[in-house]
Amino acid sequence: MNIFVIGCIGSADCLSKILSKTNNIFTGTTVTYEQLTKNKIDMCITTYLPHQDPSSELQKLHQSNIPILLPAPKVYILEKSKIYTKLLFTKLNIPTQKYCIYNPNDDFLKIPRPFVIKTEDFNWGLQTTIVTDNNIHNIHNFIQKEITKNKKILIEEFVKIKREYSFHILCNKKSWTYIGSARDYKKRYDGDIGFNTVSMGAYSPVDGVDVQTIGKYIDKLLDYVKIYVGFMYLGIIITEDNELIISEINTRPGDPEFQCILPTIDNDIADLLYKTITNQDLPKINFNGKSAVSIKLNQKDYSLNSKNSKPAVLNNTTDIDISYYLNNPVTYATLTAVKNTRKEASDCLYDYLKTVDMGDYAVRNDIGYLD
Q1: How far is CA 307 from the centre of its chain?
Q2: Per residue in 190-245, pLDDT tens?
Q3: Domain-located, residue 68
Q4: 178 contacts: CB under 8 Å, gap ≥ 6
């Protein structure tokens, strides 16, 4: 097949490499109908969503005769608006954290701490913050300065987490299929401490995932949405009281979760994606029993403004897949190893990183080791 993969992040690079083993692959950060017809493209895959411009060139492809894996614009809100999603969870009786919607005119300082705030704007992971006695005044100043009076903020209950993972599916108008879960490491420093990032790494598979229970909630969501075709992943939290709650919906593959989920699947990925787009019955996924670990190289100081960081020097290796990020001010690359055990995969990655000139980038040292 001739396949066009659209994206500028590591998941697009990783998917392109896997598909290229048996297909002709074209890549780009965007695409036009003319490009697709010129190259006789059989299928177009997107790994991100053009939230800011629902009427973009990508959406015009929905009206073309070229199969494209891209959710319709009206479902973008499931990821873009955390407030909309929380209200939907309540409407559908899906378990989630207790929450309220904060109006900037309310007294922020009187909210019992700790609690979590989520803003609507993408900010490289920093849009989600745990508010404590130590940072309450800084966060308050940020809200007063940066958040307009017309915008609202989601306030979530702070819950003590036993484990957390991303539950990935592919779905279309006929069916959905579970493609795997990954444990994502959002915190900047070892031991899951520090501020949130876009991710420092992930591993897959995750043990003990309750596919049957989560599947019932997915059935509710898809029955409500009705038109969803594409990737979706749910943020799953298991509390210290062993309560399962769903924290959010994302309308795309996770990054870097996708990079460590894909190598654990034995199915023909191109066939799976084509069946998704063309609304055929989706098969049950055959997992190969391997373990994959992905480590992200992010800026040392996590500066969102610096675009001139000295890159790491990454030598080619047959044991590790290196997925690069284009025009990204924070993340340089994701390294993924696939082995028989998670420890073996992590050992492989960290042994390799000892040989790397990291430039202005850094990694966590417990990816794959810390459950």
Answers
A1: 23
A2: 999 999 999 999 999 999 999 999 999 999 999 999 889 999 999 999 999 999 99
A3: yes
A4: 167, 168, 169, 211, 215, 285
Cβ atoms within 10 A of the Cβ of 1, count?
A: 14
**Contact by Cβ (8 Å): 253, 80:** no
Q: How many CA atoms lie within 13 A of 129 on its CB side?
A: 20
**What is the rounded CA–CA span in Å between residue 184 and residue 367?**
9
Asked, for residue 113, whether it belongs to a domain, the answer is yes
Q: 127-172, pLDDT tens digit by residue?
A: 888 999 999 998 888 777 766 555 778 999 999 999 999 999 999 9
CATH of the domain at 116: 3.30.1490.20
The rounded mean pLDDT for the chain is 90
My answer on whether omega of the bond before 67 falls inside 30° of 0, hence cis, is no
**139: phi > 0 → left, psi -120 to 50 → alpha, else beta; which?**
alpha
Chain position carrying tokens 């609507």: 120
| Domain end marker among 125, 157, 189 | 157
365 falls within a domain: no
The four Cα atoms 126, 128, 133, 137 give a dihedral, to 10 degrees, of 60
User: Collapsing DSSP states into helix, strand and coil, what is residue 178?
Assistant: strand
What is the pTM assigned to this prediction? 0.94
Phi, psi of 176 (to 5 degrees): -140, 160
- At 54, is the secondary structure helix, strand, or coil? coil
HSE of 30, CA atoms in CB hemisphere, 13 A: 8
HSE (side-chain half, CA atoms, 13 Å) at 209: 21
73 DSSP 8-state letter: G
User: Looking at the predicted structure, is the pLDDT value of residue 95 above 70?
Assistant: yes
Report the number of distinct structural domains present in the chain.
2
Asked if residues 28 and 61 have their Cβ atoms less than 8 Å apart, the reply is no
Write out the residue range of the structural domain in which residue 48 sits.
2-73
Residue in the block written with tokens 């599916």: 169
Alpha-carbon distances of 106 from 66, 109, 113, 214, 299, rounded to whole Å: 49, 9, 15, 35, 36
Burial of 78 (0-12, 13-18, 19+ CB in 10 A): buried
Note whether residue 50 is domain-resident. yes
Neighbours of 55 (CB within 10 A): 9
Instruction: From 112, 131, 157, give the residue that closes a domain.
Output: 157
